[in-house]
Structure formats: C-alpha cells, structure tokens
Design goal:
Layout lengths: L4 H17 L6 E4 L2 E3 L4 H4 L3 E5 L4 E3 L3 H8 L5 H5 L1 H6 L6 E3 L2 H12 L40 H8 L5 E4 L7 E8 L2 E8 L10 H16 L4 E7 L6 H5 L2 H14 L4 E10 H6 L9 E4 L4 E3 L3 H8 L7 H15 L3 H5 L5 E2 L5 H11 L18
Parallel strand pairs: 1-3, 2-4, 3-5, 8-9, 9-10, 10-11, 10-12, 11-13
Antiparallel strand pairs: 6-7, 7-8
Amino acid sequence: IQEGVASLAGYAEVFQRNIMASGVVPQISVIMGPCAGGAVYSPAMTDFIFMVKDSSYMFVTGPDVVKTVTNEVVTAEELGGASTHTKKSSVADGAFENDIEALAEVRRLVDFLPLNNREKPPVRPFFDEPGRIETSLDTLIPDNPNTPYDMKELILKLADEGDFYEIQEDYAKNIITGFIRLEGQTVGVVANQPMVLAGCLDIDSSRKAARFVRFCDAFEIPILTLVDVPGFLPGTSQEYGGVIKHGAKLLFAYGEATVPKVTVITRKAYGGAYDVMASKHLRGDFNYAWPTAEIAVMGAKGATEIIHRADLGDAEKIAQHTKDYEDRFANPFVAAEKGFIDEVIQPRSTRRRVGRAFASLRGKKLQNPWKKHDNIPL
C-alpha cells in the first residue's frame, strides 16, 4: 500500500510474464499461506494451483472488506480456503494436508510433464505388461443401462501399475481428468463418471474438461477419452448459466487439438454430447466402442415418445416401439458401419488396443490453419 502505483506496476509485470510463459512451459502454483488482492492473479494464470488445507487462502478482497462493503460475515477459510477453491470455485486443482505432502505431490505431477512445448512428454520405465488382459472389465458395465458404475475402475486398470494422478478431483465429479502412463508414455485422461449425475455434461464439467484438454494439447500430451454420456444436463439453471457456450468450450478444445486422440465408448453416447466427447468428427484418431455401447441421437424412451407421439396412450405399442428402437439403434454397429467407430473391441483387451493405438500415433503431425489466435467461446 505504501509503495503506491509502483507496486501495481510490479504485479502487472509478473502477470505479463505468466502470460508469455503460458503454453511454453508448464506453470504450477502452490499456495502455502495467504494470497490476497492483486497477487491472486499470477497463480490464476498458471496451469495448476495447489493449496494446503487450513493454512492457505486466496481471495481478491478479504473478510474485513467483505463485511464493510456487503455486511456479510465470513471467515478467511470460508471465503477463500482450500475447500472453497477445490469444491466450489474450481480455482484450485487440489488440496493437501500439509506443505510436505503438497511439494511431494507437485513433484509427482512434474514427472508426467515435459519441460517445455518443444519437448515430448517424458517416457518412463514401466514394469507392467503392455498386452495385459483384464477379464474383470468384461463385467464392468451393469446389465441395467440405468445402473451406474465407477469409471475410475477402468482408468486404474488401463494405467501402468494402476497409477493415476487426478486433477480437480473434488470439482465437477461427473467428469474425471488426470494423467496416467501407458507403456511408460504420459497420457491425459478425460472420462465421464456415471456415478455422478449419470455422467451428464454440464457447465462445470465442460469448463473443467476443456481447460484440461487445452493443456494437454499445448504440451503434446496424447488424450484418451472414455465415454459414457447420456447428454447435457437439462434444466433452467443450466440454460440460464450459459451451458450452450460452456459446452462449446469442450467441443472447441477437442476440435482444435492436434495431439493423438483415442476414444473408447463404454456405454451411452447420445446426441450432441457424443459429438463433443472426442468423436471421429472432431479428428479423433482411433475411436473404439465396447459391445455395450449405445450410440444414438437420444435414449430409446425419449426417442419413442417423440417419433410415435400418436401412440402415447397405448402402452403396449409404446413398449414395442421402444424395443424396436433399442434393437436398431442402441448398439455401436450402426456407427461402425458408417466409419464413425473404427472397431468394436472386447473390454478385456482395452489396455492392449489403446496402447497399440497411441504407439502408432507417436509420429503424428497435424497442423491447424495459420491464425493470430483462435476465439474460443469464453
């Protein structure tokens, strides 16, 4: 405060350096104490922010100013603590119990990343079998299409030694983002989580996944997408909140990405959400589906009620129409016939097939048309 405008100039010069380094070198911020006012904007522009529980805070205006201006009484922890920023605001990507754990986990993250945008991600020695068969995956998908299952189980069984570094674990849990290694190679994972909101995409999950996809693309990290998505979450709160533009962020991020992209559809892939989740139409390199996949414009019940609206009063006819729709469209084979799915694979062989796909894409060269910069729907 005493330094006046000179202190503001110092802040802005740091911000400018953050901006120039963005997409050139990975930037990670670790908040280990109070970070308030203009100082918060430097970590905000870095790629990852980690906080320490009960001892780190981030806010533009502190509790005293908030009370003076709005008459709200709030503690520093409630206003800008680790829990707030990992679960509500999405400002932070993770929170740890103490400084030592925070630094150890950041070291683990750095091990997945390249030093800069000119280098390939590191390839580490691995002791897992590249062609490992996981028979348990054959029964991962429940018989009832409306029964949820844990997508993290699939991620852990695909990863070398079951090692998965999750990003923003406590925010928008209906989508999972993080890093694994496949045959020693770093791979970014984006996966719908049927355990939360049935895996629907919404405003928060679209923003979360779009930012992660863009980071991976900036640093040449291949992207694996695991799909089980019934659509975008309906409701006035989503529409009023701008789900159209937020959903477009994820669509845009996948469409502009030039890194290797492999997609596996495990169950549902309906409507626009199917397109958004790294479909073949967004330059997906290898798009696989399990036999349990259902790729269609919408679910059988909703489609039947629209197509056969005249028969809504006849339960028997509606049941038959629904069954006919399921038999015809609730499978991966129509999409495979049209070339939108490269192959229908057995769940047990997913690790081997995905690993082989990424290995074949290591020399991939793809460039977008020259432009000053894109205009992503922010």
